[in-house]
Write a structure and sequence with these properties.
Shape: rod-shaped
CATH architecture of the largest domain: 3-Layer(aba) Sandwich
Number of domains: 2
Radius of gyration: 32 Å
Structural class: alpha/beta
CATH topology of the largest domain: Rossmann fold
Number of strands: 11
Strand order of the largest sheet: 8-7-6-11-10-9
CATH superfamily of the largest domain: Response regulator
Distance between the termini: 101 Å
Largest sheet: 6 strands, antiparallel
Strand content: 15-25%
Length: about 290
């Protein structure tokens, strides 16, 4: 099978309108760095020639140990590794390579494809297989699929990193906002579009129910103990234009324990409500006059 694979790869020549033209039509991605690990010279060099003609940069290794050293010192989009080799075989290589945590897709080259082998290789990080003997077109097809996987993984990781960065920035901004809100003498409470209380300061505690964790969002009706204030906030969050709603609310059993609540909705550019900001002013002394 090894000689048959080497012969098929050796007979490959680029064809106009064939595999190379197809690759150009399907994708305009830049050339990739590929690594081929196989103990048979004919297979290594045949793969190198076919993949180089596609425009890729190809490195080769004659053993799992040599391939691992190349992988540790460089970046490769796709690694092809023979399953059966002297010394470190393909499964051992995959186990070692997984510890490097690279954005690399691994393809197993094998003449002994079985279900148990496929399960073992997949558990160790293999994404696809190419069975010996294989043709140049089969090699190129597996390579394109592997590169599609690489770019999907990279895009997923990029989006994840951007999300983490946005969350960090939001946390920092929320920390600064909390410092400003805490410094205010008036009570301040912020609710989101799901009618959850996401921020309030010490001056607003008078209207709050017991909340064990001030940093965790909590339903408005569970957080605020004054029904009139809950109704006012819910009314404000139904608004489609920015306008302030005000109402006096009693915060204690004494008749003169009164706060003036002013609630303003926060709208996006399309007029959708993102939440509301409530400001509570203590007017108890004024009510005594």
């Amino acid at each position: 099978m090894r000689r048959a694979t080497a012969r098929r790869l050796a007979n490959h020549s680029p064809r106009v309108g064939g595999s190379m033209a197809m690759a150009t039509e399907v994708t305009t991605r830049p050339p990739a760095r590929l690594l081929v690990i196989d103990d048979e010279t004919g297979v290594r060099e045949g793969c190198r020639r076919v993949l180089t003609e596609e425009g890729h940069e190809v490195a080769v290794a004659a053993s799992g140990e040599e391939g691992l050293r190349l992988l540790e010192s460089g970046v490769f989009e796709v690694v092809f590794v023979d399953l059966k080799m002297p010394g470190m075989d393909g499964l051992q290589f995959l186990a070692e390579a997984a510890a490097l945590e690279r954005e690399t897709v691994y393809v197993v080259i094998t003449a002994y494809a079985t279900l148990s082998m496929a399960v073992d290789a997949t558990k160790r990080g293999a994404h696809d297989f190419v069975a010996k003997p294989f043709t140049p077109d089969e090699l190129l097809n597996v390579t394109r699929k592997a590169l599609d996987r690489v770019y999907l993984v990279r895009e997923r990781n990029r989006l994840h990193e951007e999300r983490v960065q946005r969350l960090l920035e939001l946390a920092a901004e929320k920390g600064r906002l909390r410092s400003v809100v805490e410094a205010m003498t008036e009570g301040v409470m912020v609710t989101n579009r799901e009618s959850q209380v996401v921020l309030y300061n010490a001056a607003a505690v008078a209207v709050m129910a017991d909340t064990p964790d001030r940093d965790a969002p909590r339903a408005l009706r569970d957080s605020v103990r004054i029904p009139e204030l809950v109704s006012l906030i819910e009314e404000a969050q139904q608004e489609t234009e920015v306008r302030r709603l005000t109402r006096e609310v009693r915060v204690g059993p004494e008749p003169h324990q009164v706060m003036m609540a002013s609630v303003s909705p926060v709208l996006d550019q399309e007029g959708r409500c993102l939440g509301a900001v409530t400001v509570l002013s203590d007017v108890s002394e004024l009510k005594k006059v």
